[in-house]
Amino acid sequence: MNFREKLCWITGASSGIGKELSLLLAKEGARLILSGSNVDLLNSVRDECIMHTNYCTVIPFDLSNPLEVEKVANQTAAKHESIYLLINNGGISHRSLAMETPLSIDRRIMEVDYFSHVAITKAVIPKMVSAGEGHIAVTSSLAGKFGLHKRSAYSAAKHALQGFFETLRIELQPNNISVTIVYPGYINTPISIRAIDAKGNPTGKMDNAQLNGIPAKDCAIKYLKAIKRKQPNVIIAGKEKVMVFLKRFFPRIFFKLILRIRKPD
Ligand SMILES: NC(=O)c1ccc[n+]([C@@H]2O[C@H](COP(=O)([O-])OP(=O)(O)OC[C@H]3O[C@@H](n4cnc5c(N)ncnc54)[C@H](OP(=O)(O)O)[C@@H]3O)[C@@H](O)[C@H]2O)c1
Asked: What's the alpha-carbon Rg for the chain, to the nearest Å?
């Protein structure tokens, strides 16, 4: 798969994994639409990308606002020719016990991490089908494979992605549209700093797991390779990926180990 001159739309492009994916695609000569909510950060990513590609536009919007997401997604799809590659990557996490998390926070996480991706994907599919080609990628998480302490809403949203996008893969296979679900483990990005508490405020703390995680650029290289190979699923993680295997084949050992990941704060 060659991305030269292909139109690619990346959400969560202002930071971390999405920023690195955008730079890699720009270096391949892809035409880019970059989305996020922080306009300054998006513009600085665009400034880097535009040195390598002849088209890079910024479309900022808030993934937590369903009306805005649907409007911008439909406008963006209508304005452009068919998107060749859509990367649904934007996301936030949280750090709060389920019993202390108000439903409004569960809904906010579901909007950003699940419904926004569904809405954007639905907006781009019709032109992809008409074009007879396309690829849709979505960033899940190892938390989309098993529940994790203080991540009930995040884990729920990431599990929901699997159900939606696995179904989409089956439905769109006759249209030559492939779907890749990416399950990162710990990646060195500011995601934990931006993760919200039960009051909806950012924790402002860099978790050790992320600090010592895989560099975002290395994650993006593996992510793009999986898309090019049209891999249905890919886990990009360090030794924590053993938990997926343990949950499936040795659930009791898995449970003993997952209890140790509980944090006091
Ligand atoms: N880092 C990890 O360890 C890890 C592990 C598993 C999965 N993931 C997943 O990887 C994806 C990318 O995260 P990252 O690690 O690269 O973290 P990051 O650096 O914090 O990037 C998150 C991106 O999502 C965007 N975003 C968040 N809330 C948004 C909103 N309401 N509206 C619009 N854009 C929003 C951010 O853009 P703005 O700041 O411009 O709003 C940013 O570009 C996420 O889906 C995350 O769940 C990360």
From this structure: 18
